[in-house]
Amino acid sequence: MPLNPVTVQKAPEDMAILAHIHRCPVCKTEITAQRVHHPGHCGQPACARQIAVAAAQAQEAQKKAAYRKEAHALREACAPEITALANACAAAPDDIAVAVVPHRESPLVPLPRATREAYLDHLSTIVEEAFAQDLPLEGRDTTAQAQEPHPWHGAGCRACEGRCCAQGGGDAHAFQTVALIQHLRHAHPTLGPDDMKAHFEAALPVAHNAKACVFQGACGCTLERAWRADICNAFACFELRRIADHFDPAHQSAVAIFSRGQGSTRRFASYIANETSGEEA
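^ that's the sequence the OP posted. Answer follows.
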């Protein structure tokens, strides 16, 4: 006796697979097989933005996880330095946060004459152009510009020795523009063009980091923060931003910051909570 066929009710998702229906992962609109491979969605700007944001968030999460793993490994590899810092703070080693920053190897060399002259030529150009314009009615907030986003940023930059700062070398000319000179004119209305140029020239170090910003000296930037380009004060690399995730000065005594150098080339800096060092990077 023949058996009656059993009717299986398929879920909508299964039916879509059987029918080779492809849908945008965001809005679920039907898309072609070609769009599945590129760009991977329906092509609407809103969907593209949502997918781009999700991808960026996933990449950021992966980088943060790798950073935590790296900091944990440094806690073991650099136990002597962490213990010494803990002793200096009268704290337990576990009370010391551990952070990692990039590592830049660049010898200190006399500031080349050609580099100095190229910068001074650029400076003359932007100063003359700025003073050819009217004095701006508004300037940037120099009080905010003169402060670090976090007080431990200086220690982090010293351990790194300026991977980001090096980008201000060559034709970047310390990222200085006409807009910067205009801001400084507003902040210092009594200074003339020669005074402005003389201030920058006086800050040039005798020696700087090779192939880096002209103001990148042995102890960091030789310019006061209020005279630096906006990007120099506002930018913080991924690793520098992560220190705030790992260090709570209200509950931890200090943060030990290590560069990514290997063995004896690894550099170490620290920031102790509630201690004013007066150092600037």
